[in-house]
Design a protein that fits this description.
With 270 residues, this protein is mostly helical. It has one domain. It has 8 helices and no strands. Helix 5 (140-161) crosses helix 7 (205-234) and helix 5 packs across helix 8 (242-268). It is globular, with a radius of gyration of 19 Å.
């Protein structure tokens, strides 16, 4: 399986084909030598193929679980923002972060309880953050939600049509970009602790450009997430694994939403 920028998807069972990401069980893309996945046996031991009468995963499973997870986050986020309980953001974020670590390192625990707990916690966290931003810039939260949904749907269309092929070269390029973005974020954080303004998060032209770069990387990361989910579907992973796929997609959406919210706040500054 090709590596994904999303750590959650690195534990997906291996599929049988590569090429275009189509979200179908037919595997319409061309097989390449690079798609001969070395971790097939490890993945099968960890998760197991659908056997013993267990139904294999389908795209409907992924859509339903992802929709339920996103809906949970949206509802609780809205309630948090409307109620003004912004103080819940930090503890909720800590809970979500801890749960995400559990799911990433112990994917066998992935199921409705933990995945929905992660979605609920991050929904509350994002709701608190969005409420604060919305008090300063009225309407910005709704704009960020619409923007995130638009990017998600846009990348899904790109993925389905094969406008951008998810190839080993594309994956390496995106992984390199992701590492670069993370290094810059860490550098900016360390410098800020010493009172040094790097310009990456101060709302100026450089900050706007950096936010656009991060949003671009996050958006293209969705292609890898879709492709990884497609590999699991084609590989006949058990249906219960749809919850883990939903969790992986949610982590990317949370990151994307935060970056879009940040960019919009820069554009609204006087």
């Amino acid at each position: 399986m090709r590596s994904s920028s999303n750590p959650a998807f690195r534990n997906l069972p291996s599929g049988g084909s590569g090429g275009y990401a189509t979200f179908d069980r037919q595997g319409g893309g061309a097989m390449s030598g690079a798609a001969a996945y070395a971790d097939t046996q490890t993945s099968q031991v960890e998760y197991g193929r659908a056997a013993g009468g267990e139904r294999p995963i389908t795209i409907d499973d992924v859509v339903m679980k992802t929709g339920l997870s996103a809906g949970t986050a949206l509802v609780l986020g809205t309630l948090t923002a409307v109620s003004g309980l912004y103080g819940l953001a930090l503890p909720a974020f800590i809970v979500g972060f801890v749960v995400s670590l559990v799911l990433i390192f112990k994917p066998k625990f992935a199921g409705a309880p933990l995945v929905l707990l992660y979605s609920a916690a991050m929904g509350v966290a994002l709701g608190g953050i969005s409420g604060i931003f919305n008090d300063i810039y009225p309407g910005i939260a709704l704009q960020a939600i619409v923007g995130t949904a638009g990017v998600f749907l846009g990348m899904l269309v790109v993925y389905k049509t094969g406008a951008v092929r998810v190839t080993p070269r594309f994956t390496k390029w995106l992984m390199g970009a992701l590492i670069g973005v993370v290094v810059l974020m860490i550098f900016n954080l360390v410098m800020s602790l010493f009172g040094v303004n790097t310009g990456l998060r101060d709302g100026g032209p450089l900050a706007i450009g950096f936010s656009l770069l991060v949003i671009g990387v996050a958006a293209f990361s969705l292609l890898l997430d879709f492709d990884s989910a497609d590999q699991a579907i084609r590989g006949g992973a058990p249906a219960k694994f749809a919850w883990y796929i939903a969790f992986g997609l949610m982590t990317t959406l949370v990151w994307l939403y935060i970056e879009i919210l940040r960019l919009l706040s820069y554009l609204r500054q006087d």
